[in-house]
Amino acid sequence: MTVHSFQEHFDEKMDKDQAIEAKDWMPDDYRKTLIRQIAQHAHSEIVGMLPEGNWITRAPNLRRKAILLAKVQDEAGHGLYLYSAAESLGISRDDMMEQLHSGKQKYSSIFNYPTISWADMGAVGWLVDGAAIMNQVPLCRTSYGPYARAMVRICKEESFHQRQGYEIMLTLANGTEMQKKMAQDSLNRWWWPSLMMFGPPDADSPHTEQSMRWRIKRFTNDELRQRFVDVTVEQARILGLTIPDKDLKWNEATGHYDFGTPDWNEFYNILKGNGPCNKERLDVRRKAWEEGQWVREAALAYSDKRRQRKEKKAA
Amino acid sequence: MSKELIKYTLQIADNALVIGHRLSEWCGHGPVLEQDIAITNMALDHLGQARNLYQYAASLFNELAPDEQMQLFASTALQNKVAEGKPIDEDDLAYLRDSWDFYNTMLVEMPNNDWAYTIARSFIYDTYNHLFYTKLLSSADESLAAIAEKSLKEVDYHMRWSSEWVIRLGDGTEESTRRMQATINDLWAYSGELMIMNDTDKWALQHNIGTDLEQIRADWKLRTSAVLNEATLQIPADGWMHTGGKNGRHTEHLGYVLAELQFMQRAYPGMAW
Ligand SMILES: [Fe+2]
Ligand SMILES: [Fe+2]
Q1: Contact A80/B34, CB-based, under 8 Å?
Q2: What domains can be seen in chain B, in order of their start residue?
Q3: Beta-carbon neighbours within 5 Å of ion ligand 2
Q4: Which of B270, B236, B225, B273 lies closest to B86, judged by CA?
Q5: Has the ipTM of the complex gone over 0.90?
Q6: CA–CA distance, A22 with A91 (Å, rounded to integer)
Q7: Is this model's pTM higher than 0.95 or not?
Q8: A295 to B169: CB separation less than 8 angstroms, yes or no
Q9: With an 8 Å Cβ cutoff, is A298 touching chain B?
Q10: B132-155 confidence digits (pLDDT tens)
């Protein structure tokens, strides 16, 4: 086949909603875009372990501790699936790690906010995992097969996380005045950052058209944000908590909630590295990687030795 | 009889809770993602075992007469519960006792330091724990025997995991050999306490609830020696052994573990989470 017919074959698969597999020909742009997106997604999973990992040793009871540990472990598992999916496109995990640490590849900005109270374990599960689900469910049918399959597994677990987070909030909301206050304070801090997880407004978001065709994206940022608001407002009502947005109002005509504008200034600032935890999150990841260097080297050296001994025996 | 049984159960439970706490500190910071997952898994196993044991100890405690309950722990928070006539649960035992009422061995409270240190601590403990749980299967106390049966598969996996890592690091690079040997040497002095019989162990042995730890010591020695040999590491001489933890006298480290672990219950007492 000529390059031209390769391209036609690829286009046909796109038109027919068929999956592209690792061994299939794909345009360079497609490969690069996917590597960037999947790596960023994988990095988000492992950097995302840090804000919640922050409360593992301080969980208020043993049951919550076990649930939180299992949750953060799930996120590590998500990272693993996604790194494998990205590797199938021809980039190594070590390369991705290096690009995370150098800042060349990004991770979700939401993890640059601090978790400063136990209620944040509720709000993060409820809102952050909740927003992640909205973003990710459409990716279960994305055009790149290994990515789509990873997302199916991930989305199942994310919905557990979301329910567990909501249950923490519900317990606090039904608790003492102090606990309600803790829950409200947490919602106040996480609400706007969660809305920003859907990305900038459509008007300022480039590439959308091509991403839609490649099924890397199936809905626009604003569509997903609206869907999230509509669902979450109802959930907050059940909790008896107040969403910190004075412009929030049911719109009879559209059948949706109207809501205020997130502080996009803050969003772009965090992208530039000025969020409350940007430096700390990356420093912690780098430190884990650097301090693990001798361990990884030792594991490699040992398996080499073992292989050599086996070969010697066989010879 | 129940008072001794509570203390014996807590010795086992506190080991599980504290080593689980230490392993959980690695979550998100492991040297490689697969091992991050593995070590978190083990933290979860230990935590699960601790919970089963605390639930059992709490049920035994709740059957005691109030004056006996009052004397068992120095914790004001627990005594207040008794005074109010309230039953206690697993969380009260983990979150409301101070270090002098914790009965874990000092080995498990030692800090993580680095991967080699963490591995050495787990290796010493897991090897003991596997032998111990195997004996506990035939305990005259059905609840403890049942918990041992439920946990043995996990404990077996822990022992194999930490032994394999000792071998990998011991027989890895020059640096890893040096680090692994240094931590084995450091922690060796905390291995003895696992297998020294205190009064509670002697009571448990008399009632066929516990086991003879001196017997375990011989098997422990065999197994650890085999692994250290394969790892090309020196077996440290059995010199001075630190003791105290099982009787409530701990290292300075445990206080910090508890400060972190118990923070929420201390800052916001008596709430449901
Ligand atoms: Fe995840
Ligand atoms: Fe999640």
Answers
A1: yes
A2: 2-267 (1.20.1260.10)
A3: A 129, 158, 161
A4: B270
A5: yes
A6: 12
A7: yes
A8: yes
A9: yes
A10: 999 999 999 999 999 999 999 999
